[in-house]
Give the backbone structure.
Amino acid sequence: MDRDIGRLGRSALVDHHIASVTYVEAPLTAGHRARAPYDVILFGGAAAAVPEEITAQLAEGGRLGVVVREPGSVGRAVLITRTGAVLAQRVIFDAATPLLPGFEAEPGFVF
């Protein structure tokens, strides 16, 4: 977590009189279960994969926007929609977006 960015974010909410937003500083990969379910979740960067912990926080009909970027490939902006227990994914466009901290691919076995 970057404390300076956190201070800037909270300050911007106060400066612009935005009371309908809650600023949370916590590990990104856990989401924020305390306020779930969410109608919309938007990632501000790329992820090698979206953790189930985060998709579980989507409300019925909820949408999640994220750039999914596997190692060595082009990122793809993906819209994930929850309908019951089903998560449908639709690729929207290619995107060159940096990976978010903690959302890198897990090391795997390579020959």
In short: The mean pLDDT is 90.
